[in-house]
Amino acid sequence: MENKMGYNASFAEEVFRNVDSGDEIKMCMNCGVCAASCPLREHMDYPPRQIFSLIRAGKREEVLGSQSIMLCTSCYTCVVKCPRSIPVMDVMHGLAHYALKKGYTPRIEAARFGKEFWNQVYRRGRVDERDLAQRAYFAGGFWEGVKKILEFADVGIKLVLHRRMKLIPEKKIKGISTLRKMLDKAEMLDKGRSVQ
Ligand code: SF4
Ligand code: SF4
C-alpha cells in the first residue's frame, strides 16, 4: 500500500520475489552504464538504471505503469556492458510480464500483440503472421483494425511478394497436445509462484 507520498515500502520485496531475475537488482550500483548504452533511452520515460532506483524507492505505480519496461527490444547491449553482470534485459522483460499480470497496460498495442502471439503459439504451436497481425489490429475495434490494415498494407504486400508472409493459414504442428501440456504446466507454476 502506498503512502501519501506515493511510497510503497514493500514494493522492492515484491519485485525481488515475483519478477523474473528481480532479485538481481540488489547488485546494481547505480552507475548508469546500462542507461547510457541503451539505444532506446530517448524513447523511455525511465531508462533501466532509473527503473531500478524507483523500485528501491518504492514507486510501484511509476515502475509498473512505465512505458520503458515494454520497450526493451532484447538487444543485449546493457547486459554486455553492466559491470555487475546484471541481466538487465531479463529484469525489464520480467517487469513487463509482471505488470501485464497485474493489469497494467502501459503500451496497449504491445500488450495486445503479445497476448495474440501467445494465443497463436498455444493454438497451433507456431505463429501465422497474417492471422497474428489481423487479430492484433482488430483487437481494438473494427475501425481501428481497418485503419491499421490500410496503414500497413504496403508492408504486407512486400512481405507476401518476398514470401515472408503466407496468405494460406498455417497448420497446427504435430504433437500440439504435448506442447499445450507443457505450456499449461508452465503457466500453473508461474501462477503458483506469484501467489507465494
Ligand atoms: S550498468 Fe549494471 S550496475 Fe550500472 S546501473 Fe545498470 S544495472 Fe546497475
Ligand atoms: S536489452 Fe533492452 S534495456 Fe538493454 S540496452 Fe537493449 S533495449 Fe535497452
Task: Give a quick rundown of the structure.
The protein is mostly helical and 196 residues long.
Can you characterise this structure?
With 196 residues, the chain is an all-alpha fold. The chain has 2 domains: 9-101, Fumarate Reductase Iron-sulfur Protein, Chain B, domain 2; 108-195, no CATH class. 59% of the residues lie in helices and 0% in strands. It contains 12 helices and no strands. Helix 8 (108-124) crosses helix 9 and helix 9 crosses helix 10. It starts with 10 loop residues before the first helix and ends with a helix. The mean pLDDT is 87. Bound molecules: iron/sulfur cluster (2 copies).
Note the main sheet: none
Name every ligand kind in the structure.
Answer: iron/sulfur cluster
CATH topology of the largest domain: Fumarate Reductase Iron-sulfur Protein, Chain B, domain 2
Beta-strand content bin: under 5%
CATH architecture of the largest domain: Orthogonal Bundle
**CATH homologous superfamily annotation of the largest domain:** Alpha-helical ferredoxin
Low-confidence stretches: none
Write the element-wise H/E pattern from the N-terminal end onward: HHHHHHHHHHHH
> What structural category characterises the helix and strand content?
mainly alpha
Q: Provide the domain count.
A: 2
